[in-house]
Amino acid sequence: MKFFRPATLAVLCAVLAFSTSCSLFRRTGRTKADTLLVTGNYLDARLLAELAQYHTKQPVIIFSTDIDETLQMYYIPTSQKEVEPAPTEQFSELITFLNPKRGVFIGGSLVVPQNFVDEARKIAPTLVLDSEDWSNNAKELGHLLRQGRLQREFDDYRKRLHERGLTDN
Question: What is the CATH number of domain 35-163?
Fold first, then answer.
């Protein structure tokens, strides 16, 4: 009996230590994003990216060209923090920090310069949704993110914006 208690206690401690240590290492790396969405600051592209972010809580990177033709990069985290511009030279470092399982470029090289797509491909699996039909892009993104209603919502919001005179620029 005296031997049974310490042995049971030792086995119990070993099981607890093993289960605790395994749970600490279940997430390898610094995976913070399942899918990183990247697009440009255009009406349809931005609408689709923000609708997808709303439903999936995934981060977004927006590229915008200023009046003086300088390219700005904005990182939009999932939280409602104030968004600040980030230097475009830090694009690779940002992707490495976020460590996404995949990157999705919405709009292709017409919306985001091709060199950023090439940089992202070196770091993470990358998909490009570059159909000229934005409803088709919404459908594909909805399938990819398992958000079946994304296309319907995108088409509905897009129709409302166009009825109010807002068009893609």
Answer: 3.40.50
